[in-house]
Amino acid sequence: MTEVEILPDGDYSFQAAKPVDLMTSYVFHGVHFPNPGLCNSGGWGYFSHPEDVYNLECRKDDVFVCSYPKNGNTWAREIVYRILVDPDVKKFDTRIQDIRCPDLQLYGPNGDTWKGHEGKPLRELESPRIFKCHYPWNCMPKEAIEKNCKIIFIARNYKDTAVSGYSMMSGFVMPDGETKVLQDDLKTMLHRWQGRRAVYGGYFFNVLSFWEQRQRENVLFMFYEEMVGDPVGAVKKICSFLERKITEEQLQKIVIETSFDKMKMDPSCNWEFLNTVGISKEAPPFMRKGKVGNWKEHFDDEMSAICDDYIEKYLQGTGLTFQYE
Ligand code: PPS
Fold first, then answer.
1. Ligand 1: which residue has its CA nearest to atom 18?
2. 151, 252, 301, 311: which has the fewest C-beta neighbours closer than 10 Å?
3. How far, in Å, is the centroid of ligand 1 from the Cα of 20?
4. CA-to-CA distance for 66 and 71, rounded, in angstroms?
5. Looking at ligand 1, which atom is closest to the CA of residue 74?
6. What is the pLDDT of residue 4?
7. What is the reported pTM?
């Protein structure tokens, strides 16, 4: 595994605000996680113990949709769900996506349900189970690796990731309903998400951890940018990886139903419910822009240069390159 620098305490180059520390204060396998202690506090959901996720009992036909936050997980999960469960897009199931395709970072011990939601415990879900996971490779459920479960990883360029992440996090408040979780500006965020102390190992460590596994037969490494550029090709690629045959009509339906405009209007996957559980009352919509290159509307030259430096530092020599516009 590529070694990405773990910054020693004193070198973390800005003053982290206390609430945001809670998002990274739990360490497992050298990776920083949201503190599971956020459980039961006001409107916050339950952040899983990474040990529970690591020890999850997996079935051979479980499918894992993995990504660093804000890299297109919701979109890819919806495509996988449509292919595996609902290729005719009958809309027989309008439950929110996190119930249909659970997010492993938001589960209680033993796979019990996420507080505040009506989903079943993970062990009671019908196969094929489709999971979301933000964890880096070394923290993935170990049985998923042992049993060669299918793992789809979606990667997105760092600049758009940072803008999307900042946009979402800037709306998060603590259980008091007022204190902002993120007290940084966007420029500070560019430093925050690159480092090893950032949530889920930091962007570069996380993405590279899957890039190094891309040759495995059970791993599909995809780019958000290729999905935007060729949605039909993306659905076909995912179908082929999942070893499912669909008709041309089903393909077209899935592409339309998982387009940005459709998903933005679909309460089962546009995360509108966040506003009702008090997590992000003031946040911009989850389905915000859905574009490649939106960073240009938010960055000045200095911010772009900060990212370019990190991109060169971490990706040089790895063979991993991104489309930025
Ligand atoms: S999260 O919070 O980590 O689960 O976010 P994630 O789903 O990984 O990423 C959210 C960004 O993906 C965009 N998105 C889409 N883009 C294009 N087409 C579709 N169908 C789609 N669905 C979600 C979403 O708008 C977020 O990106 P930004 O740049 O903020 O718009």
1. 260
2. 301
3. 22
4. 9
5. 7
6. 38
7. 0.92
